Amino acid sequence: MFTQAPSKFREIIEAKKVMENEANAIKKCAEKIDENFPKALDILAESDGKVIVTGIGKSGHLAKKVAATLCSTGTASAFMHPTEAIHGDLGIHQEGDPVIYLSNSGTTPELVFLEPVFKSRQAKIVGILGNIKSPLAEKVDCVLNSSVSLEADPLGIVPTASFMVSSALCDALASSLMKRKKFTENDYARTHPGGQLGRNLILKVKDVMHVKKHIACLKLGDKMRKVVSEMTKFPLGAACVIESDKLIGIVTEGDLRRALNESCDLDSTKVEDIMTSNPQKVFPSITLGEALHIMETGKSPISILPVLDPDNSDLLGLLRLHDIFSES
Predict the structure, then answer these.
(1) Are 322 and 304 a contacting pair, CB within 8 Å?
(2) 316 SS3 class
(3) What is the pTM of this model?
(4) Phi and psi of 188, rounded to 5°?
(5) In a domain, 28, yes or no
(6) Residue 193 forms part of a structural domain
(7) What is the pLDDT of residue 195?
(8) Alpha helix positions (H), the chain
(9) CATH number of the domain that residue 119 is part of
């Protein structure tokens, strides 16, 4: 006898079905991409101005995201609300700025109304439309087909699959524009200075390192008691062993713990007995990303690096893994 599956299992199945339907809709959209796609890229890439992205309702929410994606990937862009545009916000648009229309129906009255206005300002319009036989499809300069056969929600009417398809098309445009403009990681970092990627690519070791006067420095022959004292005074996780300002070795907290666990004599054990000679080091001019790579790709991961002067190899300071990821 057939018994209904427990609710939690049914909901899991339904959730997977929604995602599969959306994924299939994107796949079908990819199969429909034609020569209009590079034409759209021409319109967007050849302008010296910014790209205006507009839509209303759910398409409006997507338009905001698209404008943000374009801005962060090398294409100046701004969202314009269609209703506000006809009451003053049209000033955002400068003559010749290309426009992206987002409309599932292809009949959005506000966008239809604005079409001749944009054209009078020498703007070319790319329409990402769910209906390629619609008033907007006939008026815009280039149509990208975002139509879906069915939405992914239980009623088949909520903008779900259509939203994801339009979003994917816009991501494809943004990605292709990045390639056309030869947009690099360094370019991306300049638009994301507050993110970790931007931090790793923009900031140098010298910007965040602890300078020599603020780190524990020892000399050959110093006893364990002084090692403990100096590392307590400057609690950065390591002490540098130097001679005439040149780095001889490094003692980490791990080295110190191992020595203490082995019951070393504080007054007879010398720093050279526990230090690591010729440790990995960095120069102040390299990026945090490069320093992080050095930390992660050695024989074993390390979390602290001495910083040396590239001209004379004098010790300048210390860089910790924590300093790379700290926002302070």
Answers:
(1) no
(2) strand
(3) 0.77
(4) -60, -40
(5) yes
(6) no
(7) 81
(8) 7-32, 36-45, 58-72, 82-85, 109-120, 135-139, 161-180, 185-191, 196-202, 205-208, 224-233, 253-261, 271-274, 288-297, 321-325
(9) 3.40.50.10490
User: How far apart (Å, rounded) are the C-alpha atoms in residues 308 and 283?
Assistant: 5
Residues 212 and 172 in one domain: no
Q: For residue 286, tell me if it sits in a domain.
A: yes
Which ranges in 48-159 belong to alpha helices (H)?
58-72, 82-85, 109-120, 135-139
What pLDDT is attached to residue 1?
Answer: 46
Contact between 41 and 35 (Cβ < 8 Å): no
Alpha-carbon span 76 to 91, nearest angstrom: 16
- By the 8 A CB rule, do 266 and 228 touch? yes
In one letter, which amino acid is 192? H
Q: Which amino acid is at 252?
A: T
CA-based torsion, 53, 59, 60, 66: positive or negative: negative
Contacts of 123 (CB under 8 A, 6+ apart): 52, 93, 95, 96, 97, 98, 99
**74, 72, 79: which is closest to 102 by C-alpha?**
79
Query: 148: domain range?
Result: 7-183
Q: Which residues of the chain have pLDDT under 70?
A: 1-6, 327-328
Phi, psi of 119 (to 5 degrees): -65, -35
Residue found by looking up tokens 């969202």 in the block: 79
Give the per-residue pLDDT at 5.
Answer: 55
